Amino acid sequence: AQSVTQLGSHVSVSEGALVLLRCNYSSSVPPYLFWYVQYPNQGLQLLLKYTSAATLVKGINGFEAEFKKSETSFHLTKPSAHMSDAAEYFCAVSDQDNFNKFYFGSGTKLNVKP
Amino acid sequence: DAGVIQSPRHEVTEMGQEVTLRCKPISGHNSLFWYRQTMMRGLELLIYFNNNVPIDDSGMPEDRFSAKMPNASFSTLKIQPSEPRDSAVYFCASRQDRLGASQPQHFGDGTRLSIL
Predict the structure, then answer these.
(1) What does the angle CA B34 – CA B55 – CA A37 come to, to the nearest 5 degrees?
(2) B25 touching chain A per CB within 8 A
(3) Fewest CB atoms within 10 A around its CB: which of A45, A94, A107, B35?
(4) Could you give phi then psi for residue B70, rounded to 5 degrees?
(5) How far, in Å, are A44, A97, A102, B55 from residue B72 at the CA level?
(6) How far is B26 from chain A (nearest CA, A)?
(7) CA atoms within 13 A on the CB side of B90
(8) In terms of CA atoms, which chain B residue is nearest residue A37?
(9) DSSP string spanning A9-68?
(10) What is the pLDDT along chain B (116 residues), one digit of tens a residue?
(11) In this complex, do A99 and B97 lie within 8 Å of one another by their Cβ atoms?
(12) Cα distance between residue A88 and residue B59, in whole Å
């Protein structure tokens, strides 16, 4: 089975600062990777996905993520945080034998300070 | 396009009562997933269906939980009898796997369940 590790359950940044949320996966082959965002009292919304077409993936709201096979990482970044980015972020990987089955990280709550 | 629709959004009931959560997946999606989210355990997959057939129910906590998908546009998750420890947010998600392995899951807004 796959696993996903998100380092840091809480990350706090100032408005305008760089956002870096970390995700590492366990897989012997390049998987399909996803980042989701969850705002309070809402479901998970897709931010971006990695499909092997390009290692740098751009998503919505100015977020992007870089796939690094050598580090088995898929970290999420945004150059300049906005107050509206405060939410919980989840990294997910699909099972290499069953693409319907996703494994989610434990989530990182992003706090943006004014 | 309408997303995944869940009802009710909130449910408060007393221990021992039957609870039924409902989900309408995105039209054309052929896989449906039920998740539970709690502070302690995070996001847990309970069960998923493919083409209306239950494929993996290994995450269902116990026999008090059951799920059905009578047709491609409707699914229910039932808890009978309910217990306080079942209090959580329950999410339904759907996916179109015929479009390829990179298709994401799409989530509803969840049902916040409180068992008193």
Answers:
(1) 35
(2) no
(3) A45
(4) -70, -25
(5) 22, 24, 21, 15
(6) 14
(7) 30
(8) B107
(9) SEEEEETTS-EEE--EEE-SS---EEEEEE-TTS-EEEEEEE-SS-SEEE-GGG-EEEEE
(10) 689 999 999 999 999 999 999 999 999 999 999 999 999 999 999 999 999 999 999 999 889 999 999 999 999 999 999 999 999 999 999 999 888 888 999 999 999 999 99
(11) yes
(12) 23
Chain-chain contact of B101 with A99 (C-beta, under 8 angstroms):
yes
- φ, ψ dihedrals at B99, nearest 5°: -90, 0
Q: How many residues are present in chain A?
A: 114
- Whether residue A40 is preceded by a cis peptide bond, meaning omega within 30 degrees of 0, is no
Structure-block tokens of residue B48: 């998923």
In chain B, what residues touch A100 (CB-CB under 8 Å)?
31, 33, 48, 50, 55, 95, 97
Task: Kindly determine whether residue A46 and residue B104, on different chains, have CB atoms separated by under 8 Å.
Answer: yes
| Partners of A33 in the β-ladder | A50, A93
Using omega within 30 degrees of 0 as the cis cutoff, is the peptide bond preceding B81 cis? yes
Task: Count A/B contacts: CB-CB distance under 8 Å.
Answer: 47
**Whole-angstrom Cα distance, residue A90 to residue B43?**
10
> How far apart (Å, rounded) are the C-alpha atoms in residues B81 and B92?
21
DSSP state, B105? P
A35, A63 in Cβ contact below 8 A?
Answer: yes
